[in-house]
UniProtKB/TrEMBL annotation:
A Pfam family: GH3
Ranges of residues in domain GH3 C-terminal: 389-494
Domain GH3 middle residue range list: 297-362
Originating species: Patiriisocius marinus
Full protein name: GH3 auxin-responsive promoter
Length: 507
């Protein structure tokens, strides 16, 4: 028996039994009050009269009435530029210690999002909650003695004036609790290597000296790392190198598109646990097995609001109509798409993170990520979300027994007619016309708006098949390899032309 593992697991069990959980509704009201009270004397708090919001009969309603939505540009131009210039008490008391750099899926220019000490504490607290939830997954005691491979961006943060900058995964890894450092791999020295290929090469060289029980990171980059480790050691699967690997904590994007290709690198099933860590904070994590849903962290440093994801609320540039209806967690319904809006201890206020979610269980505050506001394809009324696209591609994988971990598409005009042009990342040798017909039929069956569009303005579907490596090379050229970088699932016409030119150049 693993004695240390039994002690750790027992301590986690005891902690869980001692904690009385506040309802999400009550927790969120308290979080909002704490945010308003703490920031009431900042420039932002004075400008929007946080004192009067706190004194009102319904602070949640008054908050949404007085404060407008802010996308990144609005927060930066109106408020955060002063923080970047070194001013204090602007949107949060004092100054942030860090700025999270986030190019996300939108392009080369990095966003600079403040990360305060309070946000670091909130992320750590959410991480402790997630560790506590591991006992729900019936893992053996010896799992709690194994090491954890966290594959994120470099922890060698850059100094910019009085602040440190890096991707959120690098910032959080550089702030791991002292008690966790003995379990953390690849370790501080390797994690500081900025060049992703060099970091992965070093991981592969040292892989057999570690007893890895869990992996944590974005699925696409984790797959590439595992392939490098497997190839370096002339192994057949990752379990030949790390036989005790039992858990993969997936973050950044949904795991389902990568499930088939990921499993090909394993010799036995592992437990997959989804997490939702963004540059703006630790938003949610999977709390229990037998679900792909994640529990919102409702008692941390983030107050959430939810705007019904309707075309009339979304402007052409992806911004939100300021008059759009917004709901609290007490008012949401299951199986409806919502735009996620956040206010946080990093001084983000009614901030549009750009993701859409749906509640799968309101009482448990469990959600799934359904897509991005900018990846909503509605050029000819098809109203396609990324979630619908993913579902259609999973049907193709099952029907043709293939793997499609990557894709992107755009609405294009051919001879005056609109088509949906798909690029599928797959190594399968299958007729693209067959794939196009299968995607078309799957979407017609799943989405009434798409079906109507196909009978009117949407002429047809075309499919191009390329290696998944082309998507990774594109990301490396446009942004950076590894870390938090994700592929754009829907592109506008100009960017799509760049993509097609790039694909032609590497063929």
């Amino acid at each position: 028996m693993a004695i240390l593992g039994s002690i750790i697991k027992g301590a986690i069990d005891l902690r869980g039994s001692l904690i009385s959980e506040t309802s999400p509704k009550e927790a969120q009201l308290q979080v909002l009050k704490n945010l308003l009270s703490t920031a009431k004397d900042t420039a932002f708090g004075k400008y929007y009269s946080f004192d009067s919001i706190l004194d009102s009969e319904n602070p949640q309603k008054e908050f949404s009435k007085i404060i407008p939505f802010h996308d990144y540009n609005a927060m930066k131009e109106n408020w955060w530029n002063r923080v970047i210039d070194g001013a204090h008490d602007i949107t949060w008391p004092g100054k942030p210690s860090y700025f999270a750099l986030s190019s996300g899926t939108t392009g080369k220019t990095s966003k600079r999002i403040p990360v305060t000490d309070e946000m670091i504490d909130a992320i750590k607290a959410a991480g402790v909650q997630q560790v506590g939830a591991l006992v729900n997954f019936e893992l053996e005691s010896d799992f709690f003695e194994k090491e954890i491979m966290m594959l994120g961006s470099s922890t060698d943060l850059e100094e910019r004036g009085e602040f440190l900058e890096g991707e959120i995964s690098g910032i959080t890894a550089s702030n791991i609790p002292f008690w966790f450092k003995g379990y953390y791999k690849p370790g501080e020295d390797i994690a500081k290597i900025d060049d992703w290929d060099e970091r992965v090469k070093t991981i592969a060289e040292r892989a057999k000296s570690w007893d890895i029980g869990a992996l944590s990171g974005i699925p696409s980059w984790m797959e590439l790392m595992m392939k490098e480790v497997i190839n370096y050691h002339n192994a057949e699967t990752i379990h030949d190198v790390w036989p005790n690997l039992q858990v993969f904590t997936s973050g950044g994007v949904a795991f389902q598109p990568y499930e088939k290709s990921f499993n090909l690198l394993l010799s036995k099933p592992i437990t997959v646990i989804d997490t939702y860590l963004a540059s703006e904070g630790f938003i949610a994590f999977q709390n229990r097995p037998n679900t792909t849903s994640m529990k919102l962290v409702t008692d941390g440093g983030i107050y959430f609001e939810f705007m019904p994801f309707k075309p009339e609320y979304i402007n052409e540039d992806g911004s939100l109509d300021q008059n759009a209806k917004v709901l609290t967690i007490a008012e949401v319904e299951e199986d409806q798409d919502y735009v996620l809006i956040m206010s946080s201890v990093s001084g983000a206020w009614r901030y549009i993170i750009g993701d859409t979610i749906a509640f799968t269980d309101v009482e448990k505050a469990e959600i799934v990520i359904t897509g991005r506001t900018k990846f909503f394809l509605n050029v000819v009324g098809s109203q396609l979300s990324v979630n619908k696209m993913d579902t259609a591609l999973r049907e193709l994988e099952q029907k043709f027994d293939i793997e499609i971990p990557e894709f992107t598409l755009a609405a294009v005009k051919r001879n005056g007619e609109f088509y949906h042009s798909w690029y599928l990342g797959t190594e399968a040798n299958i007729d693209v016309a067959t794939l196009a017909n299968a995607i078309d039929e799957a979407l017609k069956g799943a989405n009434k708006n798409y079906r109507v569009a196909r009978s009117k303005a949407l002429k047809g579907v075309e499919v191009h098949s390329v290696s998944p490596s082309v998507f990774y090379d594109w990301n490396e050229r446009n942004k950076k390899k590894g870390g938090q970088v994700k592929m754009a699932r829907v592109m506008k016409e100009e960017k799509f032309k760049e993509w097609e030119d790039f694909v032609s150049s590497v063929k």
